[in-house]
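Researcher: I'd like a structural prediction for the single chain below. Treat it as a standalone chain; there are no partners to consider.
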Amino acid sequence: MKAVPEEFEDEFIRGLKEIFEHRILFNQVLGLQIESLRPEKVVGRIAMKNELVGHYLHNRLHGGVISAGLDAMGGLAVMAAIGARHMDESPEQRLHRFGKLGTIDLRIDYLRPGIGEHFQLEAEVLRLGSRVASTRMEFRGAEGKLLATGAGAYIIS
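Model: Treating it as a single chain, here is the predicted structure.
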């Protein structure tokens, strides 16, 4: 069994941030930014944006935005786990492994309204198989209060 690295190379982190924050246009619309990218856990952030008035209801983040953010973070956690699994490859080679990643199942439990100035999203991979990965995600308010949880399955063929 290969050891999981404690940290990724700067080149891999920069490349994955470029893909996630700039090439995936929906993540730009959400304002989703990566705060921490580690093999075992990823952390992101969404700030309340006035431009997305249609996605907010009485200063509350819409459930669809919460769901989309958790789904994106689950996918990012899978990308990190795949990157950690293939540390024998160059960062550039590993960044080309994400083309066929897709959500096959998603469950979101909304616990509290999404009210706040910004939100923190966390995700981790529970199991990385050869074709399917299972993840767990959390959506927290600015004070750290748990607002929603998620579980997802992603195809990685």
